[in-house]
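REQUEST FORM: STRUCTURE PREDICTION
Request ID: SP-0412
Submitted by: Lab K.M.
Chain count: 1
Length (residues): 177
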Amino acid sequence: MVELMVVIAIVGVLVALAAPSFTELMRRNRLSAAASALQVSLSLARSEAVKRGSDARVTVAANTTAGAWTNGWTVFVDATGTANNGIAPTADTTGATAVTRVEIVAAPTGPISAGQTGTLNYFTYNGVGRLITTTGASANRSFWFFDDTSEKYCLVLSVTGRVRTTRVASNASCDVD
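STATUS: Completed
RESULT:
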């Protein structure tokens, strides 16, 4: 009985020591997964824009839930020229204002916040794969995920459409190329 109590005490101490590092591991994995999912969506939008020779967008909203990037996002090819008024389409359309949804990404798991340079709630790639603004001008942008800790996970988008990821301190900026 004494030996069993000693073993239980040792296991308890080991669990108490491992719990904080496991929590940190889960936090980092959650942020990394969200950043990776958005990077994949941005690459998909760029490749669709080049393939179809038309604007493709990644916009804040998924499954008609608008408001924040942490609710998910939608990748769609857009012939409207208006970024579908900055919201994700709820259905595909045809004709001169065709909108074709390519991917809908659900909300990232866990308590995650997001930030970005600029106020646009979407990223647009033109038919040659360049990142553009609402006026069609090229522009660098950055985007980041964080959860009120010491780090944020940045996605830095150059005008050429290239996306790179980096991890920086929470008080540092996500430098744009």
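NOTES: The first helix runs from residue 2 to 52.
Reviewed by: T.R.
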